[in-house]
Amino acid sequence: MKQLFALFAFLGHLLSHAAEVIPITPIEKCFLCSSTPSLTMYFQAPQAKAVLILIPGGKGYIGLKEGQTDNRFHFFQTLKRLTDPTLTSGQWDVVLLDSPGELSPRQMYPAARGSSDHLIRIESAIRYYQQKTGLPVWLMGHSNGGISLTEFVKYAQKNHKLDLIGGMIASGIRNESYFNAPIAFPVLFLHHPNDGCQHTTPADAMRNFEKVKAFNSAATEFVYVTGGQPEPRDPCRSGHHLYFGAGEEAAKAIDAFMSAQVQTRH
Q: Which domains does the chain have, with CATH numbers?
């Protein structure tokens, strides 16, 4: 009987941490925009206070499938910790925003991350999860996703939509990423001091942080993730750049910053 109860408890744990893939149709049409829905993977926290939407790096394409209940890539599992009160405060829903296709796959600089199609998809995801949860939405961009963050801020400034952004996590962002003033939402710069990717150097991240801190009227912080280890692969796709072996440290840094800011704003 004890074994049966243990089995039910284990199955309940799995179900409570299962994600769902939700398609989101773009809210606007534009020239050269696709009507193909964006697939999102939604990890729900028991008592969430905000939603964190990740805009992935690389080519922006995860390859989510409808009916999928998890993604075992270690970087996504790091963020999943934010939904689990046994690993962090567990106060944050987490969403992975997939692109229907690769963003600038044959270009050194991911220009497609500033395209109307991509920016409308980000706005569509924000609005969908705001309506679904009734919670503020934060954006997180990693590596090439940093371009998406800064381009979306410019888009929001131009269209008077900055109120859509609850806060941002700028994680291991590209050197070319830059924010324009003014902004008034919390921003956390997260980076590894041993990030070996030439496109995401710690020195450039620190310079970016210092510029934003000078004109942001909300909290702006910089945190180094110091643990983990390198991997014998492309340093822009592995190891310290993706907090390999340091998932717990990275998740706790994000959790601490978001907890402080959401508490302050409420």
A: 19-265 (3.40.50.1820)
